[in-house]
Design a protein that fits this description.
The structure holds two protein chains of two kinds. Chain A is built from eight helices and 18 strands. Chain A is of the alpha/beta class. A seven-stranded parallel β-sheet of chain A has the order 7-11-6-1-4-5-12, sandwiched between helices. In chain A, strands 15-14-16-17-18 form a five-stranded parallel β-sheet. In chain A, strand 16, helix 7 and strand 17 form a beta-alpha-beta unit. The relative contact order of chain A is 0.11. Chain B has a single domain, classed as HUPs (Rossmann fold, 3-Layer(aba) Sandwich), CATH 3.40.50.620. Chain B is 27% helix and 31% strand. In chain B, the strands form three sheets. In chain B, strands 11-10-9-12-8-1-6-7-13 form a nine-stranded mixed β-sheet, with helices on both faces. Chain B has a two-stranded antiparallel sheet with strand order 2-5. Chain B is globular, with a radius of gyration of 21 Å. By secondary structure, chain B is of the alpha/beta class. At the A-B interface, helix 2, helix 3, strand 7, strand 9 and strand 10 of A face helix 1, helix 3, helix 4, strand 9 and strand 10 of B.
Chain lengths: 322, 248
């Protein structure tokens, strides 16, 4: 039997999500003896996946698939699942995967569970742990169909190297031209040169406590020193201090970096719902009663306008010496 | 033009989440139920289109009778008619199958759902409905413009957004950005009075399989208490982040 994973990539290189899925599949395969197969669209460095336990990469080279198209990708996965006899399909918590995977689940009439945070607890019945209620609960769910689909929560398993001998094959899904014509991309806008929020290991986030958009220089500088992405709370985005694409929280982006630094953010429950899967949370706030401290691992009570510049200087020295 | 909102009814964000029956069921005691926050953006967008084009706006919800007060809120905000499919769904495929069946003999041009519900966070019912009905689908929609037969849709992607061109009929998974936060509608007294006379039709569910089963819930382990570091001793903070958390 086989486990089929989605090898999402950036400029042809498998991204972190793809490697995390490979790590997960490989760890599970160690229990079941399954073969780990990755399906990607236009990979140029598929070999990188062998290091994380992928035995075979199916690479779609058909140029029609160069632009993401959910229906076409779902169809390709359906055909790859058929061809490989996959009983488990894994995708990650990315915009594209969250878009096409429910279509795939509908096409295959397969049980599909999102927000999965660990390896299956049992194989028979096939039971997984997932987050629910905006991270306020953990649920144990049984998948009851022969082919099962899981969407792994971001940064929940981590990368684990387990190098194997792998092969690459070209895969040619049969999809009508009409599918690509039906929904067509006419424009893409991507912030360039910055660490994207979705891939960031560290996120530096600012709230209303920063008093105005003119004070974001130190947030950006701190982010630069740490190689971090910048984010903000909902009121900051709503007041137009920062773009909506930086808003993290329940109705904004959900993030799960290794370190989330909240500066001048009180920690409303709606904000926590988007960030409380972070591995570590550092809160810098002038108000010792700020609710965010209750959800934090590390806290500094102090004026951000003093603490942040001092922290930047200390971090610069630390980086020089390490 | 006909618009349909596929409504999720969820516990208010600030609710304390508890479970009963040995952790097998969500405890609804004392919980305030509301329109799913992601659906609110779609509902307001639908109202804006309705006001501009004279479109008819319907709402459908799969859920028990006690959710009717929340369905009435959508009528009070301005929807013309609501349907409730009388089931207490515990599986996304089952819910999607009910909605797909409902859509079989209808002719909606635009079908709006939220990108996810804030209770089960499944992010899938609207996508499965698309697969079951064949109606085209775009997820994570942060902007929508109708130009005659053509639709321009902004979709959130990793690190930015893309604009997609398509046609109606269309299912969208909407979210913040579809309208601005300050544009969100709340019911006024006149709307509430009018909503009482608007039709809310109850339909029986159809047979459909449940592909998943929730066997147990628990609360995540409690967070240890915060380590406070003196603002004049940031070297200690850097040491903790480096040696303890191992994140820098």
């Amino acid at each position: 039997m086989a486990i089929l994973i989605y090898a999402e990539h950036q400029n042809g290189k498998p991204n972190k999500t793809a490697k995390e899925l490979a790590s997960y599949a490989s760890a599970f395969a160690a229990r079941t003896g399954d073969q780990v197969i990755a399906l990607g669209f236009g990979l140029t460095e598929p070999e990188e996946l062998y290091r994380y336990g992928v035995h075979k990469v199916l690479n779609v080279e058909d140029p029609r698939f160069a632009d993401f198209n959910a229906r076409a990708y779902a169809e390709a996965f359906r055909q790859a699942a058929d061809a490989t006899g996959a009983s488990l399909i894994l995708t990650g918590q990315t915009a594209d995967a969250l878009y096409f995977t429910p279509l795939l689940a509908g096409l295959l009439q397969s049980a599909y569970v999102t927000q999965v945070i660990d390896l299956p607890e049992s194989v028979e019945p096939f039971t997984v742990k997932r987050k629910a209620f905006s991270n306020k609960a953990i649920a144990h769910v049984v998948l009851k169909t022969p082919v099962k689909i899981l969407n792994l929560a971001k940064n929940s398993f981590g990368l684990r190297e387990n190098a194997v001998e792998g092969t690459v094959e070209t895969f040619a899904p049969q999809v009508d031209d009409g599918v690509f014509e039906d929904i067509k991309r006419v424009k893409v806008e991507k912030a360039s040169g910055k660490v994207p929020l979705s891939d960031a290991e560290i996120i530096v986030s600012g709230g209303r406590g920063l008093k105005g958009p003119e004070n974001w220089g130190m947030i950006e500088e701190l982010a630069e020193v740490l190689g971090a992405a910048t984010a903000c709370s909902k009121p900051v985005a709503d007041m137009g201090w920062r773009p909506h694409s930086e808003h993290v929280g329940q109705t904004g982006k959900q993030v799960a970096p290794n370190l989330y630094i909240a500066i001048g953010i009180s920690g409303a429950i709606q904000h926590l719902a988007g960030v409380n899967s972070s591995k570590n949370i550092l809160v810098i706030n002038i108000d010792p009663e700020a609710p965010f401290f209750k959800a934090a691992d590390y806290g500094v009570v102090g004026d951000a306008f003093e603490v942040v510049p001092a922290l930047i200087e200390k971090l610069k020295k630390f980086k020089l010496n390490s | 033009m006909k618009i349909l909102l596929m409504l999720s009814v969820v516990p208010d964000t600030t609710s304390k989440i508890n479970f009963t029956d040995d952790g097998t069921r969500f405890d609804k005691t004392g919980i305030q139920f509301v329109i799913n926050p992601h659906d609110e953006f779609g509902l307001t967008k639908a109202m804006q289109i309705k006001e501009k084009t004279g479109a008819e706006l319907h709402v459908v919800h799969v859920g028990p009778k006690e959710n009717e007060s929340v369905i009435r809120k959508t009528l009070a905000i301005g929807a013309d008619k609501a349907f409730r499919i009388d089931a207490d769904p515990r599986d996304s495929y089952y819910t999607a199958a009910q909605l797909a069946e409902f859509l079989k003999d209808k002719d909606y041009d635009l079908i709006i759902a939220g990108r996810e519900s804030i209770d089960y966070n499944g992010s899938m019912v609207h996508g499965i409905v698309s697969a079951l009905t064949g109606i085209r689908f775009i997820n994570a929609v942060i902007g929508l413009e109708l130009e005659g037969d053509k639709v321009l849709v902004d979709r959130e992607i990793e690190g930015g957004k893309e604009t997609l061109e398509t046609r109606l009929p269309l299912i969208i998974g909407g979210q913040k950005g579809l309208v601005k936060e300050e544009e969100l509608r709340i019911p006024n007294m006149r709307g509430i009075m009018m909503a009482r006379r608007k039709p809310l039709e109850v339909l029986p569910p159809v047979e459909a399989p449940e592909l998943t089963e929730y066997v147990k819930f628990e609360k995540p382990p409690a967070k240890g208490s915060v380590k406070l570091i003196d603002k004049d001793n940031l070297d200690e903070l850097i040491d903790l982040l480096h040696n303890e958390a191992k994140v820098i």
